[in-house]
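User: I'm putting together a teaching handout on how multi-component assemblies are represented. Below are the sequence lines for each component of a complex, exactly as they appear in our records. Could you produce the 3D structure of the whole assembly as structure tokens, so the students can see both representations side by side? Please keep the chain order the same as the input.
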Amino acid sequence: MAEDLAAVAAVAIEDTEMSRRSERSISTALAAATCSLLGTGVPTAVDAQEEPTWDFNTSLLYYGEDADRVQELSLKAIISRMFADDRVLTFGLTIDGLTGASPSGAIPLDGPQTITNASGNSVYTVPAGQLPLDDEFRDTRVAITTNWQQPFGDSSQVNLGFSGSKEYDYLHLGLSASVSRDFNKRNTTVSAGFAIASDENDPVGGTPVGLTSVLDIGDLSNRAGKRDKDVLDFILGVSQVISRNLVVQANYSFSNESGYLNNPYKILSVVDGTTGDTIGRVPAPAGGPSHEFVFENRPDGRTKHSVYTQAKYYMDGKVLDASYRYMTDDWEIDSHTVDLRYRWPVGNANYLEPHFRYYTQSEAEFYRLSITDGAPLPMYASSDYRLGNFDAITAGIKYGWKTRNDNDMSVRLELYQQSGSVPGGQIIGNQAGRDNYPDLNAVILQFSYRFKK
Amino acid sequence: MKIFLAIGILLLCSGCSSMGVEPWERDILAKDEMQLTTDALEAATDDHIYFSKEASSGGRGFGGGGCGCN
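Assistant: Of course. Below is the structure of the complete assembly, with chains in the same order as your input.
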């Protein structure tokens, strides 16, 4: 019995020393080991010795696109409470405010065009030569997340999470669970997890039936009610300590979405097969679109696979963080992402961190700039620029410092630029001389403040 | 596909057993800046921005989303 007790205590002590996050004292570990051996719970007096620790991580984000496109202000907080034995409860809150305009999906023309807005209750006019933007883009989003982290046995850990978010026209609810286990003196960690989500689209005016015409003001005859989307995610990962200053990670993820995957606000222009110009409605109605447009339509399923690898390397105080992700899906989109961060200490506690990210994707098989009048309608079509063929670069810098109270503050400024192109075979007639896929330029400015108590 | 993946992970793990450090050599690895996710808030922010603007998401963790922005 005494030997058993000593062995359990020794394991508990070793466990304490090896755990990166553990703040248990040896006496607490001994008490816990004794209690577990005796089959009793840890007395409250022991719990009281361990000060619960709070970690507050807060930030204010400004995201702004040029040319009157999307502007976002976002408040975020992640608050963790650490309990004894590495149990952690985390709560996250995000409040986003969005304004601005988003490309509708219609092409620019040499003359003005009038389009019914997404909710079907008014029209907007686009000047000649300009990309049609729907400026009805205004929303507030509130999102919450919770996570419970619980050690399981000597070297395993379980995480259970919930997420929910609400926008005016969208509801998301999700659950996640993951388990990880350490091997080889905690140098190898293998993890597996899954997440399920059920989302509901409830756009103003109803969800339009795909590839039906954009109608006159007040005509909602091609709109249906709320539509659902279900998402299932799996992830398998391994992280490995290579040496005292190098740690690497590799993840494989699988994601399956099913249900309503359209963007209810995106449309396509219906064009003449020779000139490439949008077909005008004759006579032009007073309260409706001046030209022919149809709502986009995407498949009702999507399966994605991705591989993510990351390395962190410590070099005499400086830290290089490099990652690469490959994604492929059954919409025939392939993407590559390279992300590099280099943390450079300045003085004792401050640092500068340049960040560079490169992203490239190929277009979805059903991406098309416009629909040709008179030709058979395709089964699926979308001109959403996010499903097109484009490259994106993010470049920026972050500066972090310690406040007088030893709390962490940081500010980062980044520029994001997307430049895409329409596949050559899709350009018809006059479309050739126009900028059908304008660059997107955005600024990301984020202040973060982190304190513990 | 999944079988290859499982074999790959097993091979990786068996190779890994000879790598790593002793518990008393974790001074550098224990630093905040050496954690795989150094700043959870910044990571969540970036995941959300790129989910809204690109056709890919996830990788580091779950696919994210939960918004009508895509």
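A couple of points students might notice: The helical segments of chain B are 2-16, 40-53. Chain B has a mean pLDDT of 82.
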